[in-house]
Write a structure and sequence with these properties.
This protein is α/β, with parallel strands linked by helices. The protein is built from twelve helices and ten strands. An eight-stranded mixed sheet has the order 3-2-1-4-7-5-8-10, sandwiched between helices. It has a two-stranded parallel ribbon with strand order 6-9. Strand 2, helix 2 and strand 3 form a beta-alpha-beta unit. It starts with 34 loop residues before the first strand and ends with a strand.
Length: 425
């Protein structure tokens, strides 16, 4: 008897990543390491042994769970690999890995990706941060309260000893982050952070940087997705032997901010994969881009009509450029207020002044485009009539509208992150 062959089933598209489960505390009795502390190093033969032995002794005396210390050596050319291998052989719960390329972000990405511990942390080899803050750092992750924990030198309660140059650079960098990417955390650069492994598994594939911007990129993505970030004020003493190249690192950070800002503005990051089932993130994730675009387009059409009507009324008495500036200013203020409520769902008066001041920044962009278009028109065709001016303004407004939407979404009304929490050092 011959049996008919069934046709092969059509290939199904890959499913979307499932949501993160609700946070839960770790079991009190855990046979495997609960915490994996990574120490990224490059040519640290003078500080490595002192750091690892002090860290191992501190964890052995104060940490109530099994732990592991991982020395992540990225392309050292001195005695660092030999020291790391010897420490791994002597100290229980210590291991080391060797990377062929430099990059602190690369070392953390590799070490965290290979670890099976439910809580992953790292600290700088110079031990600038007092180790007394380590247990407060990881406790909210172990208890299930938070997703990420960071040490901060810029929050109330922190005690910091460092020179004015590094203090100014640090505050300027974090201020720039707040101004451009609207972050809510206070200190992106402190080398003292921890993350739950289930969160790291989703975040690490989204983080592109493998150098110093790695920390900032990871935190910005996590915050935009609504994950809870816990901050711990730390006692911190500057390392006078720091070998960070300030200029090249600053330029790389600026390029990273620009790249990350574009990715967020264009919706290229799958932030919904970081949603937690039934957790505290409901309503805090970014609104659907298509729905925002439709509402923004409707508001933009109304404000463009307002702009053209006001321009037509003011043009005879004020001239083309003055009429365009006044009409655009009025319509821009109305546009920001309408988008604030209708497109981005912001209610109440909180932050209204800040939103309108930032909205004026978008107004300047539109003014340059529309005013420049009129200037080019009058120079190229001095006798053009009112109808040609209106068509020119419409074309310029279309370009300005696209830029305005990107600015409003990424800068003026960014996704509001979950409220960060701060614990005592």
């Amino acid at each position: 008897m011959r049996t008919a062959r069934r046709p092969a089933p059509a290939a199904r598209p890959a499913p979307e990543p499932s949501a993160l489960p609700r946070r839960a505390p770790l079991r009190a009795h855990h046979p495997e390491p609960v915490l994996d502390v990574v120490v990224p190093v490059h040519n640290e033969e003078h500080d490595l042994e002192r750091c690892v032995r002090r860290l191992h002794a501190h964890l052995g005396e104060t940490f109530p769970y099994p732990f592991r210390i991982t020395v992540a050596d990225n392309a050292s050319t001195d005695a660092t690999p030999r020291i790391a291998a010897r420490l791994a052989a002597e100290l229980p719960g210590t291991r080391w890995i060797r990377l062929a390329e430099k990059g602190r972000g690369r070392a953390l990405h590799t070490a965290w990706s290979r670890s099976g511990a439910p809580v992953l942390a790292y600290l700088d080899v110079d031990l600038s941060t007092d180790l007394a803050a380590l247990l407060p750092l990881v406790a909210p992750l172990i208890s299930g309260h938070s997703d990420i924990a960071i040490g901060t030198r810029l929050a109330r309660g922190a005690h910091v000893v460092r020179g004015p140059k590094r203090e100014i650079i640090s505050r300027c960098y974090n201020g720039l982050l707040r101004g451009t990417l609207a972050v809510g955390f206070s200190d992106a650069q402190c080398g003292f952070k921890a993350v739950r492994r289930d969160v790291a598994e989703r975040l690490l594939p989204l983080v592109r940087d493998r150098e110093w911007f790695f920390d900032t990129e990871l935190l910005v993505i996590a915050e935009r997705a609504g994950l809870r970030i816990h901050e711990v004020p730390v006692d911190w003493v500057d390392d006078p032997d720091s070998r960070v190249h300030i200029v090249s690192t600053a330029l790389a950070d600026l390029r990273g901010m620009a790249r990350l800002g574009r990715a967020l503005a264009c919706g290229r990051l799958p932030l919904t994969a970081l949603r937690r089932n039934g957790g505290d993130l409901a309503g805090r994730l970014p609104a659907d881009l298509a729905r925002q675009a439709v509402r923004f387009a409707a508001v933009g059409l109304a404000s463009t009509l307002c702009h053209l009507l006001l321009y037509t009324a003011l043009r005879p008495a004020a001239g083309a450029q003055t009429a365009n500036s006044l009409a655009l200013l009025v319509s821009a203020v109305a546009n920001t207020a309408a988008n604030r409520r209708l497109t981005f769902g912001v209610r109440g008066r909180g932050g209204a002044l800040r939103h309108h001041l930032k909205g004026l920044g978008a107004f300047v962009v539109a003014l340059v485009l529309t005013g420049g278009s009129l200037a080019v028109l009058h120079r190229a065709a001095p006798g053009s009539g009112h109808r040609v001016e209106l068509l020119t303004l419409i074309a310029a407004n279309l370009a300005a509208t696209l830029l305005r939407f990107l600015l409003l979404r990424a800068w003026v009304f960014p996704t509001r992150p979950a409220r960060r929490t701060t614990g005592p050092a």
